[in-house]
Each structure stands twice: as structure tokens, then as C-alpha cells.
Write a structure and sequence with these properties.
With 80 residues, the protein is an all-alpha fold. The protein has one domain. It is built from two helices and no strands.
């Protein structure tokens, strides 16, 4: 937790947040060129709903046939 008593930490946090925002803005325009239509949840204005539903159905079918399934979920940590 950042407190008013620790200005160095506050300055570091503000600088880090600003640096991340600048980097994100610069990369945003390039990411649209490289991302495919399947990258729904990672694109501005797109949802993960369809992708999540398809994943749920896939897992259910694999369980139905007793197939081993491994899922890796990665989240982008947002600093606000």
C-alpha cells in the first residue's frame, strides 16, 4: 500500500504506470497487424464470450469421452 509518507514509492508507481500506458499506446497500432480474428479478448472492442463458450463446450465433450484435458489461462494485469 502506498502512503503519503513514502513519496519515492509514489513517484515510482506513477512513473511505472505512465511508462506502461505509453508502451501500450505505441504497441496498440502494431498489434492489429499481427493479431488474428481469433484473438477476441485481447483486442479493443471485442469480447471473450464466444471464445469462452466454445472452450466450455470443448471441455464438456472431452469429459464425455474421458479424454485428458489441460487448460492454461493467462490474464493481463491492468494497472489503473
Amino acid at each position: 500500500m502506498v502512503t503519503e509518507e513514502d513519496p519515492k514509492t509514489t513517484e515510482d508507481l506513477v512513473f511505472s504506470t505512465l511508462a506502461i500506458k505509453i508502451l501500450e499506446m505505441k504497441l496498440q497500432k502494431y498489434s492489429e497487424v499481427f493479431m488474428t480474428e481469433t484473438q477476441n479478448g485481447f483486442r479493443k472492442g471485442r469480447s471473450c464470450t464466444d471464445t469462452t463458450f466454445c472452450l466450455k463446450l470443448l471441455i464438456e465433450k472431452r469429459r464425455e469421452f474421458n479424454l485428458e484435458t489441460h487448460v492454461l489461462s493467462m490474464r493481463k494485469h491492468l494497472i489503473t
